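Regression report. Comparing outputs from two consecutive submissions.

Submission 1:
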Amino acid sequence: MRLSHLLLPAAALALAPALSGCGTDSLPPTADAAWYIQMIQTGTCQIQGHDDQLGAVTSTDRTKVITDQVDGGNVTCTVSGTGKFDVSATTTYKDLSLSVNISGLSKSATADKPVKGNVTYASTKTIAPYAGECQFFFEGTKEAIAAGKVWVSFICEPGLTNSSSATGSTCEVKTGYLLLENCETEVTAEE
């Protein structure tokens, strides 16, 4: 065997790590989410009060997230802006679904001065989707917002309404937490 036949493959192997990044874009991190919702039975609410969660999150602890396209989870989200942020997200996992749209959410939002946004929530416990306006705010020291991520609390008073109900079932969300990470930072044409 000639020496030149051995040197060419060895040289190619030596250069492979240096050339592996050429001409390729690195993939962005995969979006992930967690949320908790406590719906209570008040007024015209026609379903039993209950808690539901995707992953595990509170205002102070982030224990588990659901990652887009892992184990059947779907997370699509955008958190864009500077100073004031627009948040758009749809999360689904098994029988759980939560969609959120918030305009102008800033770090200064408090329980006394929240920012309004829209929520649509569904699970086997609600039978059909409930939707309505909610109030979003930051509590605790860990909740925050920046381009591509948000961790925020919310309540929905007077509540979310099931529009398919003949009598208009409206149920209050007493406590809610939303965590979104690795989201898009710019609104795309499809949104």
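Submission 2:
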Amino acid sequence: MPDQEQPKKDPEIEFRYFSPVEGHAVARFGTGSTIGASRSPSGFVINPDAVVPIPKDEVARYAKEYADAIRHGELLEKKQADYDAFKAKQAERSAPKTKPQDTPAEDESSERIATPDDVAEIEADKAGGTEK
């Protein structure tokens, strides 16, 4: 997945949100990573669905670079709601898939855990007698 940092949990930090545009790997200036992209042996893999939070002070420090990327159509600015929807979609995809448990009919063919009485009966049958 994208090589980006997760936002800090500090409620004092405010973020701006960005998504990459297909075909454009935009640097996260000052960090050495890219926004919504990861490197592969054949180049960058862009995830245009990614919404990346970047602290506002970091964006302000590189305001010209981010503004240029937006103006050139390489980066889209998003809203907090877009980020929340992106995170919800990621959580949904990574949640374990559970299927409803089938409840077998209670008959002789259904499997169950053996009780101590069952074990004693099996052992007695093996020994050639019944012990109940």
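Expected: both submissions complete independently.
Actual: both completed, but the second showed a warning that disappeared on reload.
Relevant detail on submission 2: The beta strands are 15-20, 27-28, 33-34, 37-40, 43-46, 52-55, 75-78.
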